[in-house]
Amino acid sequence: MTEGSAAGAHADKELLAVHALEAGYGKIGVLHGVTLRVAAGEVVALLGPNGAGKTTLLRTLSGLLPRTAGEVRFDGRDMRDAGPREAARAGLVHVVEGHRVFTQISVNDNLLLAGYDLPRGERAARVDEALSFFPEIAAKRLDRGGALSGGQQQMLAVAQGLVRRPRLLMLDEPSAGLSPVLVDRVLDVVTRLRAQGTAVLLVEQLIDKALAVSDRVYALAQGQVVLSASAAETDLHHRLERAYFGA
Amino acid sequence: MILGQVVLNGFLVGAVYALFSSGLTLIWGMMNVVNFAHGDFVMIAMYVAFVVFTALHLGPAVFVPLAAVLLFLLGVLVYFSLVRHVMRGPMLAQILGTFGLALVLRYATLWVFSANFVSLPDNLLGPVVTVAGLRLEPSRVVAGLAALTLTIGLHLLLTRTALGSRLLAVAEDRNAAMLVGIRPDPMQALAWGIGAACTGVAGALIALFFYISPTVGESLALIAFVVVCLGGFGSVPGALVAGLLIGVIESLSAFWIGPANKDVVVFILFLAVLWFRPQGLLGKA
């Protein structure tokens, strides 16, 4: 399933391939044939107005929501009927919107839980590795998840994802509810992940901040991809606007 | 001194209340399902104790663990055959589902054992000992202390172990738990198993000094609901404190205003607490 020549750069290797994906809630269809790709080590921004289906797409890819039609391949594997457990184990990790952490248990336990199926020694190493991205919460290891601030909870949610050492990390609006400084801190992690070869699919409302850390961009509107472009393209804002409004 | 005796007896019964109520609060907190058959689980465990004692002449060292295992299996079975399905339906389906189960268990027991009240011999664990003026009935002391230990053990299981973290994770956010690879189904089945095993132990223990009948579950279920509401939904420490409190209040009111009226006092206090602290004594707002 790899595209490009064998001699091509690491970044050309196809990691996620979604073709004509349809999904929704009950009888209400939300995704109407989404097709997109993410290459290994690439950061892709997924933009779009509210209700476009961004969150539904992530939920379908991570197996929380069953798909009704279409294909999903991850790292060459057929993921059409994979549940959340299989997706997470394959390295397709989803950090949900709204900094959802387990509030009743400690920061450390939150992270241990994220890697609960790993061998003990490996798990401890992964937790330290994930915390190395976020010194702020490393200092609060023994605090309850519920005692952290919103920004710290978002960091913990991302760190939980990192414990699984993802090949593709899907972040759903990590900036939601955070101060600008914290948004930069979280998005800075995206850049660091990219540098170490982890691909990121980033759903964001803050278009400029998202574009600054991304290689490519897709825009979703009414359950379909309406724009696919390089993040470096000029005039992207106008193209996005036109794509959203179907002009 | 007699007051000390009354408080002690209430405390020991209260510990058993706390244990079976912990099972109810665990299931309630885990998946927002109210198990109306909870009291009847306790009743089944009492009959396990009765049958093991009368048919096999074996004591609590056998029938308490056996009741725990049997009720654990019953809890898992009920989860997979009933609860998992009614959870997808409306709230009314859950209520009627477990209420129906309660009736099935109650009338099946009535059919097999008839409506007669039975009990285990008073001195099954030996004669009454008097220490510093307090009458210590071995059956009550053993039941109370065992229940107290197990309730604390359940709390430690939930808060100090990796398994407990997984149970709490599923309880708090099913989707987030699924995204780290936890399968909610086995965890919820386990919660039903553990919750029912609590009733198993509690039922077998309370059978040591309580009358046994097919309808005894009704009054015990009522106590469990009061304990869980007082202690806060999903809180095992809350259930422990509330269970002991109800035991002592019940015992004191039986002493002061007569055994027939003890429930009235409990329910009036219950209403008063709900009026001023609707989240329960230890519950979070």
Fold and architecture overview:
- The complex is a heterodimer of chains A (247) and B (285).
- The N terminus of chain A is likely disordered.
- In chain A, a hairpin with a 2-residue loop joins strand 1 and strand 2.
- In chain A, helix 3 runs parallel beside helix 6 and helix 4 crosses helix 6.
- Chain A is globular and about 50 Å long.
- Chain A contains nine helices and ten strands.
- The two termini of chain A are 35 Å apart.
- By secondary structure, chain A is of the alpha/beta class.
- Chain A has a single domain, classed as Rossmann fold (3-Layer(aba) Sandwich), CATH 3.40.50.
- Chain B has 285 residues and is mainly alpha-helical.
- Chain B has one domain: Orthogonal Bundle (ABC transporter involved in vitamin B12 uptake, BtuC), CATH 1.10.3470.
- Helix content of chain B is 75%, strand content 2%.
- In chain B, strands 1-2 form a two-stranded antiparallel sheet.
- In chain B, strand 1 and strand 2 form a beta hairpin.
- In chain B, helix 1 runs antiparallel to helix 10 and helix 2 packs parallel to helix 4.
- In chain B, 51% of the residues are buried.
- The mean pLDDT of chain B is 91.
- At the A-B interface, helix 2, strand 6 and helix 3 of A face helix 6 and helix 7 of B.
- Chain B: Pfam families: BPD_transp_2.
- Chain B: InterPro entries: ABC_transp_permease, BCAA_transport_permease.
Topology record:
The complex is a heterodimer of chains A (247) and B (285).
Chain A: E1 14-25, E2 28-39, E3 43-47, H1 54-61, E4 67-74, E5 77-78, H2 84-90, E6 92-95, H3 107-114, H4 120-131, H5 135-138, H6 150-163, E7 168-172, H7 180-195, E8 199-203, H8 207-213, E9 216-221, E10 224-230, H9 236-245
Parallel strand pairs in A: 3-8, 3-9, 6-7, 7-8
Antiparallel strand pairs in A: 1-2, 1-4, 4-5, 9-10
Helix pairs in contact in A: 3-6, 4-6
Chain B: H1 2-31, H2 38-56, H3 60-86, H4 91-113, E1 129-131, E2 134-136, H5 138-160, H6 162-172, H7 174-179, H8 184-206, H9 216-231, H10 236-257, H11 262-276
Antiparallel strand pairs in B: 1-2
Helix pairs in contact in B: 1-5, 1-8, 1-9, 1-10, 2-3, 2-4, 2-8, 2-9, 3-8, 5-6, 5-8, 9-10, 10-11
Keywords (chain A): Amino-acid transport, ATP-binding, Nucleotide-binding, Transport
Protein name (chain A): ABC transporter ATP-binding protein
Family (chain A): Belongs to the ABC transporter superfamily.
